[in-house]
């Protein structure tokens, strides 16, 4: 054997010597490669185009080679343009899907910069290096189930879910020179916020967001955010949330919870906590991020045990999604709400709802394929379980059913089958829909594949789209007209131009029944039809003739949208028979919907959804039904319903703040169930004077009186009257008086108010006169507020009278009232510096605490409280004028307590003067002397907070900068604020809600004054709104003064709400004059113009559909 080896080695050496000699001898055309041992090239199986100017070959070894001069490969580009599909290849008449044959990718196209969406989806590659690729789009490597390692060079990830379904992925790495991403703990982290409007990163907004993770990931400690779907399909086993994570986007762990064994949170995290392997939030917002309701279980795992100590009160959306190994879960009686798809594809077989669960949406129990039984505590006010059906008692609707369910036949218990209630149930073979069921919702029996026999009864008059789609019963139907009992479910003839054979006796036409029948020109609907479902004729682009019967009682949304019949209707209110479908064209501003036809019986679903210009609404007695979302997000100021039993279907049927209707009916129930103020509609108007003989208050308290008008009829009455207050100005201080502005301004209006105030004499008197009105309820016509200074016997005397006359001047009603209100002596207790005093416990009978400082200067207040929220107390001078007001937040460390320095707002105490302290919430307080004013203090402390910007010290500081540069004041860095900001000369643009306290804490090295738009000082807990002014002092020098603009906030309350969108729209239409600050706040598209598109964007932002931070550009 040894000899054979030596001979072989000798032969190899001889060949090398020969080859070397040949080269040295100058033989042309021969090289070392010509003598090398070549492996046979793998056979090319497929080839074709894979992008513009790009070719591919796929050989028998699974090597995909890309060549050419093109720049983008893929099935789908990030800009939404579809390239030629190269994933299925035609060869000799046979089409072959090639993606699952790709094992390796070789890129020879030097100009290739982009991997398009879904480009290598389902390939079998095991590793990939992006090299010089610059862009990776949506799902580019989706479901590459054998991919183990991935390296990102300089590429940017533009699309979501780049590695979803890559279960084998073990290693993620990023080039150290990549400026936008880094990898740590096998997590891909994005450094900066990506602005989709500019298609680039905003390097001033560092977010450190985890955008992808894998099974072995450990979330980095410096990460701040976890993006949606970041760990989707990751099979991660341990989830630990570090201290710096301040926001976890929804569905971050979608379809990844089943393998999770433990969920923990760093104890220093200020937003999230974990108990019993359940992650929940302890605050509703943080650093500008809105987290929803606090104490919500965000996600759990198969080992979760929901704590019963009240730390978790809600189960959030998708909380246990795809936890197929979750077999048992006890919902404690501290849980009040269950979010949509909370148990999607979880393994639960049984579920019990305690009495505390009163909130659940239509999808809360959807997609629970293993659930066989559900039970409900007998004391639950909202839900019940009967015949193995979960029923919403308020709506009389089945929320969830099973293969062994029987639908109850009692109409007092159930009248409808809800959306998705029986969807995707296996083993359900037959179903009897009893007489009491009048409605079957959208997708109610969707894909119940075994359902073959359904028995319908005559009570059914409404069927939602796809209610029976995917069932054997549906598949067995044939013919042009498909019926479910007496309900036309589907019309299958796409060639028909005329429909005139709908059976007499048909009760309803289902949603989407004729959708897309483009040749249909004419339809005849018999008198028996009571309901037409949503989009029933939508998209019938030739339908110009509709012969409608007389029996229609309900209609879904957009029944005839995109048809010639609809387009031929005149602008204005549009009807289908006696059903109001909506308003065609652009509704005028301040539209009063008070002249609905007297024969109207119903308002269609979504008839006026998000119509911001609707000012008032009156529904006549004939209206018995208002459809789902009919007046959603309209917010009319005045709503009057004459039929007490008019049915509002669904919680979103009407959004308003007040409803006036006759007492004791369904309308009142709807108002109370949806937290809408309800006022009874009365036959004769009433004038209500809110003050009573014998009322009393203690010194330092507020006393308020108001007058209201209720039930004023549009055509029958006029109300007039007077109110007089007499008070002792030495004992009482008048705080304010205000008048309601909810009245109609037109030629019929006759509104006169004359009032006189003499604060020196202590008298207020006024007269009022209301003429013809369309509003049936008025907020307090006048509100007068006093604060007691000293004690007395009958310090306020009030007398009032009102006269109500009909249109002809005849007196209907006359009322007179008198009252005397006494003020009792307040009980005081002296307190000293550096001693704690308790406003509760042994001092519970003490009204006021009397503090007499011994030294001139500023004082510090230390506050402790057992109450777990904001508290406040007030300090008055000896005449009970406001001196200072302290708002505090109880810190997590109760022993540490809160601190307030009077120097912060220059509240200077004078030695020997008396100050009174009144608590609004129980607390412990200690006062400490901290500083003497270096210059002469004011001779008289202010009696109330200044309403105009002061011009002299101490409340206003010098505005000139020192000339000595060595003493030049430092400048504040507004970019440190916890929201995105932009500075523009004297304007500070902010992207989200911000409080005074946050600004002061961030800029703690400065003295910070913050005034609202009226020049009043903002409290620490107050939100800073558009028009507010921030004044920054370095010592005695004013170094910055900024007017704040919160994008989208036109109302100036520091929040972006739907009312802001409405005001923006009014401004864009020229209906309102907006201030410069409001215009700048409204221009969220940043094009220098105020347009309707800005209003739409603000609405989406207010509803949480758009990222408001993007509005800063």
Provide the spatial order of strands within the biggest beta sheet.
21-22-25-26-27-29
Share of residues in helices: under 10%
Assign the structural class, choosing from mainly alpha, mainly beta, alpha/beta, alpha+beta, or little secondary structure. mainly beta
CATH topology (fold) name of the domain at 686-823: Immunoglobulin-like
Q: What is the level-2 CATH architecture name of the domain at 686-823? A: Sandwich
Catalogue the unreliable spans: 1-38, 76-84, 739-752, 772-780, 933-966
CATH class bucket of the domain at 686-823: Mainly Beta
Report strand %. Answer: 25-35%
* Tally of individual helices: 8
> What best-fitting shape do the alpha-carbon axes yield?
globular
- Gap between N and C termini: 79 Å
Radius of gyration: 37 Å
Number of strands: 80
The average pLDDT score comes to: 80
The largest pleated sheet is described as: 6 strands, mixed
